[in-house]
């Protein structure tokens, strides 16, 4: 499943950037927990998730990507996540083979090394614990590329209908 992602946060960053309604990249906040983003974070173009925003995605790359750049990605699964009682899946991706053939054999989230999956899961388990009073996050495991494709198909339809 190939898509285009817009990067908001580079891997290793503690700064939460996002694009405002005018398309400006702004600092939303600094991460209070002593953790950094385990992969490049952004969203998949032309999707609309259940929470009313574009579908969130992490792309694993060999070096951090600059915010506001686009990359063609292969979605390989997602973390089934609820944030403050609202569904908020985090899709997991790797670059398409033309961008980086390193990941050509990775077709499912379950093809990733266990240590990589553990790092991503650990980040989402704790990243909102500080400051106190933030939304509670529930994680319900990883889901495969087939379920990811279904959800992203729905998100694309939702986007098309909202135009």
Structural summary, described in words:
- This protein has 163 residues and is an alpha+beta fold.
- It has a single domain (2-162), classed as Alpha-Beta Complex (Inorganic Pyrophosphatase), CATH 3.90.80.10.
- It is 19% helix and 36% strand.
- It contains two helices and nine strands.
- Strands 1-4-5-8-6 form a five-stranded mixed β-barrel. A two-stranded antiparallel sheet has the order 2-3.
- The mean pLDDT is 96.
Main attributes?
Pyrophosphatase, globular, inorganic diphosphatase, magnesium ion binding, EC 3.6.1.1, about 160 residues, 2 helices, Inorganic Pyrophosphatase, two-stranded antiparallel sheet, 9 strands, magnesium
Describe the protein's topology.
Elements: E1 2-9, E2 15-19, E3 25-30, E4 40-44, E5 55-59, E6 70-83, E7 86-87, E8 90-95, H1 114-126, E9 137-144, H2 145-162
Parallel strand pairs: 5-8
Antiparallel strand pairs: 1-4, 1-6, 2-3, 4-5, 6-7, 6-8, 6-9
Short description:
This protein is of the alpha+beta class and 163 residues long. It is 19% helix and 36% strand. The protein has a single domain, classed as Inorganic Pyrophosphatase (Alpha-Beta Complex), CATH 3.90.80.
N-to-C span: 23 Å
Question: Strand tally, please?
Answer: 9
Which series of helices and strands comes N to C? EEEEEEEEHEH
Query: What is the CATH superfamily?
Result: Inorganic pyrophosphatase
Whole-number mean pLDDT: 96
Largest sheet: 5 strands, mixed, barrel
Share of helix among residues? Answer: 10-25%
The CATH first-level class comes to Alpha Beta
Total individual domains: 1
Q: Given the structure, what is the number of helices?
A: 2
CATH architecture: Alpha-Beta Complex
Strand order of the largest sheet: 1-4-5-8-6
Radius of gyration of CA atoms, rounded to a whole number:
15 Å
Give the strand content: 35-45%
Instruction: Name the overall outline.
Output: globular
Question: What class do helices, strands and sheet pairing give?
Answer: alpha+beta
């Amino acid at each position: 499943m190939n898509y285009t992602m817009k990067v908001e946060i580079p891997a290793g960053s503690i700064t939460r950037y996002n694009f405002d309604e005018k398309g400006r990249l702004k600092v939303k906040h600094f991460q209070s927990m002593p953790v950094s983003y385990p992969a490049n974070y952004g969203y998949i173009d032309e999707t609309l998730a259940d929470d009313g925003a574009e579908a969130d995605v992490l792309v694993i790359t060999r070096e951090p990507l600059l915010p506001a750049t686009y990359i063609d990605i292969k979605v390989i699964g997602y973390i089934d996540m609820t944030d403050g009682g609202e569904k908020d899946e985090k899709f997991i991706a790797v670059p398409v083979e033309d961008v980086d053939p390193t990941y050509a054999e990775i077709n499912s989230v379950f093809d990733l090394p266990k240590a990589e999956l553990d790092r991503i899961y650990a980040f989402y388990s704790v990243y909102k614990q500080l400051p106190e009073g933030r939304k509670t996050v529930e994680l319900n495991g990883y889901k495969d590329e087939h379920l990811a494709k279904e959800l992203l198909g729905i998100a694309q339809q939702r986007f098309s209908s909202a135009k």
